[in-house]
Write the structure tokens for this entry.
Amino acid sequence: MNPRLAALLLCLALWFAAATDYIPAFIDAQGKVFGLFKLDIYKDALHVASGLWALIAALMSRRAATMFLKIFGTLYFLDGVMGTFTGSGFLDLSIVTQGVLDIPVTIKFFSSVPHLFLGAFGIATGWFGDRLHTGARA
């Protein structure tokens, strides 16, 4: 996949993640998004800033988009792995502020799926995209 397109897709996904906190259809009676986790203004700001980083990289060049995908993908995937085991992440500093959470393993995993998925997408397109891509380059 073209890295510029991949970065744009991640931009949209990150901005959607930030928006879910403000769309009633995604929030349950306890204020949890998809019934799994609570977002806050800090996490929303991180998603918006990451999306802005993705957009800027996509608009700048193929090289900037590839670098974004490599860095973002690796960081987000590792954050998802940490979240799967601890329920907290390092990107939002929740491992420092909240420590290891005493919540069900299924909640830890499903709460981490977005970072695992977005991170894996970034890794695949950033680190291995040229090997997977057979079409013309942008």
Q: What stands out?
A: The mean pLDDT is 89. The two ends are 10 Å apart (CA to CA). The CA atoms of residues 32 and 55 lie 28 Å apart.
